[in-house]
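tool=predict chain=A
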Amino acid sequence: MLAQCNYPFDTQTNEALNNAVANVAPKTVCYSGTISLPSRKCFIIGIHNMGHVPFMTSLFDRIGVQMTPILEKYLLQKSGRKEYKQNYIHQLDVKVRRCKKQCKTWQEVYQERTDTSYGPGIAIARVVQNKRQRVVEPGKLKKNTCKCGSTTHVRTTHHDCP
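tool=predict ok
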């Protein structure tokens, strides 16, 4: 069972293809009225399946155009960078370093769960704390009374205020 789980392919192929398509066909541009979107998708799938150099050489051969040495050199560099990146992220020390960076200890998780410095209503508490407190002098009226002296209403516009 473990041998079946250990295969050399990336399990996030769908995500990688979606990102590649979004790179060549951004959602801010509408390609629905032309054949541009399907051709861009096919281009990405061809590069993903065959690689940069084999796909481009086969494409150029089919349309009858000769590939320039500069383009071939560029595609070789691009595929070399991709191959290096894939080999680099699969190295054991890189995986361990990445895991240590991503994983949290149980103490950190416990601290996050019990931390009360952030929660619902925190902005309301800050607003209340930042307001200036009115100082009521002993001879002045309290806040829950009207200027007329009545405790049944607070404003002078109330219908009971004389």
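The longest helix spans residues 69-89. The CA atoms of residues 34 and 58 lie 24 Å apart.
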